[in-house]
Design brief:
193 residues, 2 strands, mainly alpha, two-stranded antiparallel sheet, Four Helix Bundle (Hemerythrin (Met), subunit A), 2% strand
């Protein structure tokens, strides 16, 4: 189908109107969580960090969750690349670049580089927020559904009032964890207190 410039302009205006809803509060939240202390950070991890924040701001909540996890994962991975060398081993079982986020969290906590509450926060993003969106499948145990279905995830996005929380709530918590840990993890990687 071919659209006229006027039709395209109208589609853009409609999309802008929908996306604008809640932006002021989301921006206020972002600024309240911002860390004013600059810290050296890995370039790729920082790009993911900024994209997570942008996704939150524009209301792309699932993307904000995924990008928050990627930013934190890359911050850990970049530390271990520097500490173990490019192509180095995270531990005796896995190379740094082949490590999962769970592997990186476990190793950083075992190395004393992450404290238990930081590891728990990163695990929360991974298991409770990100995984259900990127691994939507029905899993049953004793005839009980034990993992969210695609329909549950759809409801979190489009009808959160039917559930105890929705994608926006999960994205807010992910962004809060990201804002609270990204720079401190980066500072630690560079030996800055």
């Amino acid at each position: 189908m071919s659209y006229t410039n006027e039709q395209l302009e109208r589609l853009m205006q409609d999309a802008d109107k929908r996306a604008h809803s809640g932006r002021l509060e989301r921006l206020r939240f972002l600024l309240s969580e911002d860390d004013p202390d600059p810290a050296p950070v890995d370039a790729l991890a920082y790009e993911y960090y900024e994209e997570a924040r942008l996704c939150w701001y524009v209301g792309a909540f699932v993307s904000a969750i995924v990008m928050s996890q990627l930013a934190l994962e890359e911050a850990l991975r970049s530390y271990y690349r520097a500490a173990k060398g490019v192509g180095g081993r995270l531990n005796e079982l896995v190379k740094v670049d082949e490590a999962s986020f769970a592997d990186l969290i476990r190793q950083a906590e075992a190395d004393g580089w992450l404290c238990p509450n930081e590891a728990d926060a990163l695990t929360k993003i991974r298991k409770e927020f990100r995984n259900p969106y990127v691994h939507t499948r029905d899993t049953k145990a004793n005839d009980q559904l034990v993992k969210p279905t695609a329909f549950t995830q759809y409801l979190k996005i489009h009808a959160p009032q039917l559930l105890k929380s929705g994608a926006e709530d999960e994205a807010r918590e992910s962004i809060k964890i990201l804002a609270g840990l990204f720079r401190s993890i980066s500072r630690r990687a560079w030996g800055i207190k």
